[in-house]
Amino acid sequence: MKFKKLEIGDGLKSKDKIYRYISLSQFMSLVEKNRTYLTRLISWEDTWEVPSINIPVKKSNGEVEFPIYSGSSELFGQCWTLKEESDAMWRIYSPSKNGIKIGTSIEKLEHIQGLQHSAINKVYYYNDLMDGLNNREKFKKMSHMFADGLIKRDAFEHENEVRLITRNDERFIGDKVSKGNYIEFPIDVVRFIEDIVVDPRAQDHYFSTIQYYCKRAGLTIKPTKSELYDDRIYEKTRIIQEWKAVE
């Protein structure tokens, strides 16, 4: 089977913008090392990731037992979102009010070096696990190999997640096959990042420091500060109220 470097899922286009909310330390690591990483899905906090590995199997003799090993445990991924601005995401991923949101286009995921075959798909949110398991069949083409890692409980629906996903296999990542829970890949950060946005609650001195740091690091993108809590309602909307006497 011949694979594309990046399989783009249904409902997504190569020019679509995606965003990732990360901590300051994650941002600095990305910039300083010019490396990004994918992590093993079963190591994530949500214990329902890749649910099939925790579902027992009925054998031909009628006995039921939990699988010793599942190929789905070799799925590695990275979380992005289609949501450009989100109060919930800032509060979850930036609890100290110093988080960073980076933005890029789906097509630029192909700049990740060493990631030979991968897919990016919208996560399917389910209320009932059986519904989620059944919907795995709807993921197209190469994504079928990743479908077990593309379903999630609807308690996380606020994330509006799109997931970059691959497999811990030489055909997909070459010599980077790992026994650990994360794999680093080289990336040209200057070419990759299109937006850098600082937490809307960040102090001004912190924001100016991030701007200085990015300039010193050689990034061409000038960071901005989220205006999520900006109170300049009139300046942004030009809406005018009109009072009328009640007769």
Q: Percent of residues in beta strands? A: 15-25%
Question: Helix count?
Answer: 7
Oligomer: single chain
Sheet having the most strands: 6 strands, mixed
The low-confidence runs, each spanning 5 or more residues with pLDDT under 50, are none
Distance between the termini: 76 Å
What number of structural domains do the residues give? 1
Structural class label: alpha+beta
- The run of helices and strands is EEHEEEEHEEEHEEHEHEHEH
Shape: globular
Give a count of the beta strands, DSSP E runs of length 2 or more: 14
Helix content bin: 10-25%
Average pLDDT number: 92
What would a concise description of this structure say?
With 247 residues, this protein is of the alpha+beta class.
Notes on the structure:
With 247 residues, the chain is of the alpha+beta class. The chain has one domain (6-237). Helices cover 20% and strands 25% of the residues. It has helices spanning 24-33, 87-93, 129-135, 170-173, 189-192, 204-216, 233-237; strands spanning 6-8, 17-22, 35-40, 57-58, 64-65, 75-81, 100-105, 118-122, 124-126, 151-153, 161-167, 182-186, 195-198, 224-225. Strands 1-8-11-6-3-12 form a six-stranded mixed sheet, with helices on one face. A four-stranded mixed sheet has the order 2-7-13-14. α6 links the parallel β13 (195-198) and β14 (224-225). The N and C termini lie far apart (76 Å). The mean pLDDT is 92.
